[in-house]
Amino acid sequence: xxxxxxxxxxxxxxxxxxxxxxxxxxxxxxxxxxxxxxxxxxxxxxxxxxxxxxxxxxxxxxxxxxxxxxxxxxxxxxxxxxxxxxxxxxxxxxxxxxxxxxxxxxxxxxxxxxxxxxxxxxxxxxxxxxxxxxxxxxxxxxxxxxxxxxxxxxxxxxxxxxxxxxxxxxxxxxxxxxxxxxxxxxxxxxxxxxxxxxxxxxxxxxxxxxxxxxxxxxxxxxxxxxxxxxxxxxxxxxxxxxxxxxxxxxxxxxxxxxxxxxxxxxxxxxxxxxxxxxxxxxxxxxxxxxxxxxxxxxxxxxxxxxxxxxxxxxxxxxxxxxxxxxxxxxxxxxxxxxxxxxxxxxxxxxxxxxxxxxxxxxxxxxxxxxxxxxxxxxxxxxxxxxxxxxxxxxxxxxxxxxxxxxxxxxxxxxxxxxxxxxxxxxxxxxxxxxxxxxxxxxxxxxxxxxxxxxxxxxxxxxxxxxxxxxxxxxxxxxxxxxxxxxxxxxxxx
Length: 493
Description:
Shape: globular
Radius of gyration: 23 Å
Mean pLDDT: 90
Number of helices: 5
Helix content: under 10%
Low-confidence stretches: 1-28
């Protein structure tokens, strides 16, 4: 089955936003909250964890939408750890709480020039033989540093600039590894700087480095806006994405020296720390076409850009269908489609232009593209677009307006082959089969005012947002021996 056949119709209810601020019109558009659909024969049986952004509470619910536990201290973006604890962001840093909501571990980066944000992952460092935690952070850079990095002076001054880093801490909160974008920039502006492309070369010759002078986007505050990450213990690699539309993979194992943070950071800053793989927007390194608008301003094309606004990226775990592939929630902001639409992509980064799994990372432009066309262009207004040959599965609503989230969101592969998704802006949690059929759907009932709603009035997005959500089987280690008695829907406990 080809990709063209794998873009499916999904959500059955209306989700159109009202831009008319009349009370009567807004009140007439309602969405029932809680469990809206469950195909018991095809859905993956388990428990769903999500954080209600507006009251900062994490809920674990059963398949019927009944609460089995909740945590007030788990912060936003919670996920279960194998030890049965919950980890999330809270109080300006990371926090780990036990089943009874007691804080058992916390960490905040107190360095003045660093600002933690968005995502983290608890992993097991095989070289250290201990669990560690990776997180994303913005690091302040001065105007002088930017000029030294070969930034174009014409785009300055670079006051208040920040460039992302990835930090690893041990369970004592000590920083043991750090990877910084500032160490992996390339530029073609100033030949006197050490990161200059060199005679006869261009940015296109350096897919393993990031252009310090991204077209139209000079370095500034929150320059890249990384917002999702993952760690692969078996490969000892770290992966993260930028909201502008790229995914990056870097080597952790080859740049980590146990017991020597300074040596680790020196390796991470050197050639061994250059990008191993990147996916999403080859125009950023001059190996593809950017999106563009036709001369008559009526339609636009996505060029070779694949993703944008992305807020979730991870490896599919071993033992699951698609193991080793990359799964991402492609919010699809900045794709410049006539009608914005979110997609879930599964990507095999090892595929070459012949569809052969090489076992090694293949630069996506080398793997090539095919042209995807909507089967219903009259109603969707979808222009044909270039899709990477490394995309092996994708999902999106046949009516793009029915499943679109410009922010947040997540996707997770389940043991039965289904994919579990969360659309942040509408608080939608959906499970679909490999063929694209919806088999479970739940709408978060926690509103912006903290009240529990039986229905949501459609007076704007993010009224009941859920940043991410996860499904866990009853056999998950974190649930062993736990009291999972149903206590009724949210708000009835």
